[in-house]
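Subgroup meeting minutes
Present: P.N., E.W., G.H.
Scribe: E.W.

1. P.N. recapped why we're keeping a running log of single-chain structure predictions: easier to compare across weeks, and new members can see raw inputs and outputs side by side.
2. G.H. added today's entry (474 aa).
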Amino acid sequence: MYGVQHQYLAPGMERLFIYLALVSATTAKFRIHTQQKLLVAAVGSDVILPCTVTPPLPGVGLEVRWFRDLYHNVAFLLKDGNEDRQQQSPDYRGRAFMLAGPDKGDLSLSLRQVRLSDAGEYHCFVENATAQIDEEGIMTLSVVGLGTPPLIAVALQGSSVVLSCSSEEWFPEPTMFWVIGNGEPLLVNHSITEYSRGFFHVHSNIHLQDASGGHVYCGLQHPVTKKETGVYVSVSDDIFPRASPWAIAFWILLIFGLAGSALLSWFFFSKQKEKERKLQEIKDSAESLEREVEWRKISIIKESILFDPSTAYNGLLVSPDSRTISTTDVIQDVPQNPERFDTEPCVLGQAAFSSGTHYWETEILERSGEFWSLGIASKSVRRTGGQRECPEALIWAIRGTTEGYYALYTPPVYIASEPERIQRVGTYLDYDEGKVSFYDVDTYRLLHTFTEIFSEPVYPFYYVGPGIAFSLNP
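Output recorded in log:
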């Protein structure tokens, strides 16, 4: 009728289209939940920022972005089920991890070693680009410094006794107060608050003319947690100076006696320390010699390896002799092949190892970047998309950062501090025993050893962060 043409579908095709429409509608709709709007964490502690998604979602086609205050200040980023470290803020590298994932319905973020600079508003942002749907949960992280236990010092000033109370590493500034034994607050004669390295340091003095009350309490209360800490000091009437010559003689003898005891104690203490220092030097020398002997046994089999340009990310520059690699702002016009890393700045060595023992050395030429990684990777390591460096991803490597050095497990394990600037790393592989070890070549120190049963050939592996350059020693 009316010139309308009807198009009919076979019953089977009609049911298929209805099913696909229902699945699309189901997977497109989701909700983000944050159980707490305000979290309080102490400096140096670990905290979990809770966030869940209902229903659980597959990672493909999904972006989970944790950011603080601004969209591009990324604490953690998950794309298509893979962690993206390229866009992650350097402040969060090695400290922020997702506990589970969207397929489990748990997007909670674990933040380790909380800093004062971590305070702010955190967004748990989830986007399904295909369905053009996004949701987010917001919470505020307040970072506090709980301070050190108060320390009280006693001194004489004229005919009065001066009590000094001090405490450090508070944030925000605490309330400091004095209370005498009967519960009466005392008038503060002198109070100082200093601000250093992001923390408040407080100091307060009071003057006592007599020992009325028996004991005095110095207390501090945190303005956020309301937690109170303090210390009592008992004040005896005998401590107050008297005009009697006997009292003066007593104090003089006491002072000289204390000074003599302190001098004698210092003498024996310094002798003991000197003895301990010499013993430690002997022990360190023996350990250093033992490390050097072990390293020299390994270094005998040192091999000359080369970078494989056919595997290098197109943002990396390989020297003509294939011994040096560095980052560049110019994207290289290189042939595309299945062996090349297409997203992360990674490269493999040309040598493939499937048996025996092998040793090679790598020099870090340029260190202006935030981090780098080196180790070994299996032949079938994934070359496309974001790279996660851990044994589960067929990569056994260590990472150098501005804060220290880590063995790349899940999560990473701390192995050395940044002041120990490592210039050359020796890599020792015992394929048959299933071990790969890393050495500081200049100190012969063993940094870390992975153990694994290898099932396929492995290659030298490098992650070349921005501002980093490697050289393979011949």
